Amino acid sequence: MSHTEKKIFNADQTRSLEQMFDAKIARDEKIEPKDWMPEKYRKTHIRQISQHAHSEIVGMLPEANWISRAPSLRRKVALLAKVQDEAGHGLYLYSACETLGISREELYEQLHSGKAKYSSIFNYPTLTWADMGAIGWLVDGAAIINQVPLCSTSFGPYARAMVRVCKEESFHQRQGYEIMMTLCNGTQEQKDMAQDALNRWWWPALMMLGPTDEQSTHTEQSMIWKLKRKTNDELRQQFIDQTVPQADIIGLNIPDSDLKYNNETGHYDFGEIDWEEFWQVVKGHGMCNKERISARKNAWDNGEWVRDAALAYAEKQAESQDAKQAV
Amino acid sequence: MTNENLIHYIHGIADNSMILGQRISELCGHGPNLETDIALTNIALDLIGQTRSYYQYVAELSPKDITEDDVAFLRKEREYKNVLLVEQPNTDFAYVIVRQYFFDVFHYLLLKELEKSKNVNFQAIAKKSLKEVSYHKRFSGDWLKRLGDGTEESKQKTQQAVNDLWVFTDELFHMTKDDQVVADAGFGVDNSTLKSEYYTMVKSLLEECKLLIPEVEYFQKGGKKGIHSEHMGYILSDMQFMQRTYPDMKW
For the structural domain made of A14-286, what CATH number should be given? Predict the structure, then answer.
């Protein structure tokens, strides 16, 4: 049954549909757009997938900020391609979201009005070229840790989109690390630039893995629907354990005086995260929250006449086609 | 024909791709919709990719030990030989599309001739670029139709862009002394021979789009001789920022 057809089920029927639905997910089968699904499942997925799509397109902005100033032609081309990949991710995530019965216009409206969220990390400014390295290495690195489990999530279109997204993200992560490595092999000034970028992006990257498990509201249901496989704290630990040795290799210092390898647990212990800062940025008080949303809104509003023109032209073409066929 | 003639000739072609690529890349993340954003970024990528092939060739020809990046980032404004058209600002989407179409038709005709060059490097670059530029021309031409024959508002905006940018088209066909030497040697293209086909193609599409062909008394020129508009300094201050602030470093 298509989600647009509103079939009314009685309580018993709904219960039985729900049981079938739960069983299907438990068997690791995919839920497809035309399958019956509980309303809460649909809403949760619209929220999460659109939030993810919004993060991709808002995430284009801090990096696009350095395209015109990239330090070499090779870096310029790579950065353009990376930002373009993010637009592509946005495109297929919006498409996956649209299969749940919501239009792209509605999704944009939610972003522009502030109703929908996007990853808070993009509200931090990109101040130097090294930020292009730090974003690729840390932000894409954290994103991969968040996203790899989604390749086997229960909603088919989302899972399939994520397979492609993850492949590209892992390329971006390597590219970012390579920028950092080049800086660290360069002059003292370049190395300082890399260290400064790590200092500014490290904590926001840890925050990207989400609030602590105690504070996280959606985790339990998300686990059942396979929107989550591990808790935020587990993911954060994984990110830290993976990233610290990478920083060591290129001679950068993680800006955390409490960071220490714990022989007993086999993990790194780390310092207190400033959650006050996190919530302030989520609430809109980050350095660039306003700029990011107004950049998106301006692009959309200034593009309205363009989209209208394309539509009007397509209609004229269709009419003249019809007229030709009538003759 | 000296290497210097050849290098100047290449600047004349490659700087167009460089500066237009730079201009379009300013739009990345700000397009009217995602599909167009992606397509324009693609065009910027193609143009900068072509630029690299040309500049690498310049680096090879140069008596100095230089790289493609020295050619791209370390020249003075006067040494960039792009036409004025490509440095014009992204005023709105109509300007972006009209600038692109005016350039794409020229670029397409140029590459079709350059493919026949006696110089194997030019042949190879032209062959690869021609595929890309055929797509650019289709993209900008299709959008020109949509904008020209879309709504009343889009028509007005597009007519305005056509009127303002038309004055920059004639310069595309100007020949510098170096251009002439390289063309005479069978390596380069005599741009003046492309002019009549260019205007036939452009005018025919403008008519199809129901746009008026401007009548101008005087065409702007200067870029090919290194005399640019006021926009150029700002383009370069962005583009050269890293190289000027942190000289002699590897990135």
Answer: 1.20.1260.10
Q: How confident is the model at residue A2 (pLDDT cuts 50, 70, 90)?
A: very low
Q: Alpha helix locations (H) across B152-228? A: 152-165, 177-184, 195-208
Contact residues on chain B for A304, CB-CB shorter than 8 A: 32
Do the chains contact at A190 and B52, CB–CB below 8 Å? no
CA–CA gap between residue A13 and residue A270 (Å, rounded): 51
Is the Cβ of A295 closer than 8 Å to some Cβ of chain B?
A: yes
From the CA of B6, how many Å to the nearest CA of chain A?
22
Hey, how many other C-beta atoms are within 10 angstroms of the C-beta on A44? 17
Of A77, A83, A311, the CB nearest to B49: A77
So what's the pLDDT on residue A5?
52
Q: Count CB-CB contacts under 10 A for residue B63.
A: 8
On whether the CB atoms of residues B100 and B140 are closer than 8 A, the answer is: yes
**Where along chain B do its domains lie?**
3-245
Of all residues in chain A, the one with the smallest CA distance to B97 is A306
Tell me the DSSP string of A90-154.
Answer: HHHHHHHHHTTT--HHHHHHHHHHTSS---GGGGS---STHHHHHIIIIIHHHHHHHHGGGGG-S
CATH code of the domain made up of B3-245: 1.20.1260.10
pLDDT of residue B215: 92
Cα–Cα distance measured from residue A166 to residue A144, given in angstroms and rounded to the nearest whole number: 6
List chain A residues with CB under 8 Å of B55: 73
Q: Are A81 and A141 in contact (CB under 8 A)?
A: no
